[in-house]
């Protein structure tokens, strides 16, 4: 399979179109779920922590099993089923609001169930992309998909914030249901057949799970990426859990301003996707990954917000700068990390190895949400935010003291993985 231009690949275009629309709706739902909890149901910091923890708990519960299933089965049917399932589950929120019986336990249940299907989708998605594009197009493809996510981040939360003020938070979720249906339809239209998955004479799920974990732990690049992701997700969820609560209640910003601030971050993320490939070619893979991770907390204003005594209008300007600068470099970081994973790991074990990386790395997210909610209850959202920013900065040490900092490109000679 050779490609000269990514947009001449019709199957990638279909995959990209479905993900673009789906991510638009997902960003609306993420903001609307938080808005429902904080504004409609008057959730406490501890309840916000539980909501974030339950949304991330499936990473710990099912990601390793998901990796085995993804390597045993064709990936596209898994993606389609996950899209349809998430749309059906999310539909319960606006319907419950219409019936007048929406409560926090339902939000907890929806967060958990959607989280399970999202884990399946994400593991299959990361493993499916190398089937649709060639290795030399991975960075470009991930950048284009990242650009879509950025556009969704610009429009989704901004629209969600306005809808929450005008119509009420639960009803924005109707939009997401439709986007998942569109995504499933786009995947159905992809014509390229996936290679048949490897078959095992005597399949053993526990042995296959251990194979995935072993591959990650034995490879110094994958091991460093896993530790960095875990640290970032743990401390990042200190901020994520109290984001709406801190900005709305402590700093006095309106829901519309908070939603627009996330949209401004989407502009930054879009810029990041446009410059990621160029920065990587100019500075190399390792420097681009590490530099991006350091820039976010040091220069985006993350460390300033908790200690500011400025007026609401000035705070709004600072949060816009935080989102804009921070998301430029988050995009560069994540595009390179995902591309590095896809380039390092052989296709036949990509599902298991990706799931192992997510189990440890992304599995730290629900723990961080729970711990962050508890800490915010004890010391307040302001200092919890500051602690999270410092922790994100410390996460770069895993990469600085690893072979990642010496990587220049995605050439196999630099990324060799001995499986024997």
Q: How would you describe this structure to a colleague?
A:
The protein is mostly helical and 420 residues long. The chain contains 17 helices and no strands. The longest helix is centred in the last third of the chain and has 33 residues, at 312-344. The protein is globular. The mean pLDDT is 79.
Give a quick rundown of the structure.
The protein has 17 helices and no strands. It has helices at 10-40, 45-72, 75-90, 92-99, 104-132, 138-166, 173-188, 205-218, 220-250, 255-283, 285-299, 312-344, 350-361, 364-379, 381-394, 397-400, 412-415.
Q: Mind sketching the topology for me?
A:
Blueprint: H1 10-40, H2 45-72, H3 75-90, H4 92-99, H5 104-132, H6 138-166, H7 173-188, H8 205-218, H9 220-250, H10 255-283, H11 285-299, H12 312-344, H13 350-361, H14 364-379, H15 381-394, H16 397-400, H17 412-415
